[in-house]
Write a structure and sequence with these properties.
Strand content: 15-25%
Main location: other
CATH architecture of the largest domain: 2-Layer Sandwich
CATH superfamily of the largest domain: Gnk2 domain, C-X8-C-X2-C motif
Largest sheet: 5 strands, antiparallel
Oligomer: single chain
Number of helices: 6
Number of domains: 2
Helix content: 40-55%
Strand order of the largest sheet: 1-4-5-3-2
Family: Belongs to the cysteine-rich repeat secretory protein family. Plasmodesmata-located proteins (PDLD) subfamily.
CATH topology of the largest domain: Killer Toxin P4, Chain A
Subcellular location: Cell junction, Plasmodesma; Cell membrane
InterPro entries: Cell2Cell_Antifungal, GNK2, GNK2_sf
Pfam families: Stress-antifung
Length: about 280
Amino acid sequence: MIVSHSTILLNLAFFLFLPSSNPLSDYTTLLYKTCATQTFNNHQLSLTLNSLFQQLIAQSSQHKFFRTTEAVDDDTAISGLFQCRDDISKEECFSCVNLLAQMSNTLCSDSISARVQLEGCYFHYETEETGGESRSNSLLHKECGKPVVEYAEFKELMEEAFATLESGILNSNGFYSMNYKSVKIMAQCEGDLETCECSSCVNDAVLVGKEECGSSLSAQIYLNKCFISYDIFGNSVPGARRNGNKERLAAIIVGGAVAVFVGFALMSMLKSRFRKDEYE
């Protein structure tokens, strides 16, 4: 089949102007993992752990949080749970938990307790010997972004955003996400926490965020029972302008280059058509 010159150019122009398709969230990015140094010393424990994984994977197709316990024998049991971020789909949750089980086997093979946290979900299991480790609101992981340029105005904005977050989580089902002015802020608690426990955990996470990432344009704070994250967008806050301006300039340059190329291609097509008409 012969494809005309004009068809090729028009198709090329169409694809060049298609918006770039970025995934909603790279929820499979590994954020951190904690593995106990002590490992299982018998085959039955490993089999029970694999059975636990299969239970959690099966439940992740229908639920975003699930906790269960698998008995090894009359004296020993392994408890485990998974939780997905509330703003991802059930399909994404299922894929995330499947990947968690694979990562846990690779990163924490046969550890008597482990926690693997991806961007969109986490998995945690423990034996009775380690069961007390996850009951406090201690800091597990933090990521602080680039520092702000003008701190005073930024601090005032974040105080307002944090106050709104702490108020919002009280009236939620354990997940709260909002855009406050130029701040995208989010919090989520472990799925079976009571409202007051969830609120207390988020308050603790906010305090950690202020202390550990107080001058950062973005942050993720993970405690045992909850997490918070925030990110600055737009140009409302001094210090956020640098990245915004660079991205806007890059978009203008790329857009201009594309426009020039397509214009040149269309002119070439028209000239070719005129020549063809003259010869006819």
